[in-house]
Amino acid sequence: MKSLKKQTLVLGLSAALIATAGYAASHAAKSSNKAVAARHAQMQMIGYHTGVLGAIAKGEAEFDAATVKAAAGNLHALAKMDGSTLWLEGTAQGEVDGSRAKAEIWTDAAGFAAKFADLEKASMDMMNAGDAAAVGAGMGGIGGACKACHETYRGPKN
Amino acid sequence: MKSLKKQTLVLGLSAALIATAGYAASHAAKSSNKAVAARHAQMQMIGYHTGVLGAIAKGEAEFDAATVKAAAGNLHALAKMDGSTLWLEGTAQGEVDGSRAKAEIWTDAAGFAAKFADLEKASMDMMNAGDAAAVGAGMGGIGGACKACHETYRGPKN
């Protein structure tokens, strides 16, 4: 009788532990999905501001120094963001739905950070572009940073 | 005959002008939609980082000084962003699909900017929170800034 009670207790505890682990896993999965969504929002804003500058470079929108400064400044802030809240371990492509993050982001963290630093520099350089031609010249650095990072650290479409 | 030619020319020019206006309008509509999407991405990132801090405040996630600093720092950068590329005139609720921006954003631009400044200050204050209780205390300022802005400048659900 005593042994049966003990066994029941052990079973009960195991069930509680499994439930806790299940809760923790589901909590982690939720955090992972949210981190991936936030990264996508960051990329959306980077793409948007690059597009604002690109339209000026292509003559589709009028050159305006304040707009260039604002768009480049926002790009700079986005590039400079602390990635530790966004690029959580366990959120690579295949680990979380919708993620295209390659494992190299974590195995080569310094290289990955360097790409964001390139975008940081290129957007800083763009801030004081004085005319549409200067915006066009600066687009090389910005587009180049985007492309280089995507080539190395972004996986194929899901 | 000459008069007919002239008439044809005038008609042709009018058509070209209408086409140009149409292109400009469609270009502007595209820009408006993109600006609204970028604003939503900004709000998504603000919500995400507020959630990271909120989970620590509620004890759902462990307190970690580096995470708090990163999340609060990113919030600060998001609050500080130059809104001139995002809150374009003509992108209020009813003017662009999906927008919930009230007209007051433009008629009371200083008041609107002050709300972002409140979030900027609250997130700066949060950066050096030393434990979960301090994060909890700081959440009041962050949540309060979000709420105050939404109450005054965000329209009902679409």
TrEMBL record, chains A, B:
PTM text: Binds 1 heme group per subunit.
Pfam families hit by this protein: Cytochrom_C_2 (PF01322)
Span of the signal peptide: 1-24
Entry keyword Signal: yes
InterPro entries linked: Cyt_c/b562, Cyt_c_II, Cyt_c_prime, Cyt_c_prime_subgr
Keyword Heme listed: yes
PROSITE patterns documented for this protein: CYTCII
Alphabetized GO MF terms: electron transfer activity; heme binding; iron ion binding
Cellular-component GO terms for this entry: periplasmic space
BP GO terms, sorted: electron transport chain
Binding site for heme c: 146, 149-150
UniProt keywords, alphabetically: Electron transport, Heme, Iron, Metal-binding, Signal, Transport
Protein name as it appears in the record: Cytochrome C554
Native species: Sulfitobacter mediterraneus
Lineage, broadest ranks: Bacteria, Pseudomonadati, Pseudomonadota, Alphaproteobacteria, Rhodobacterales
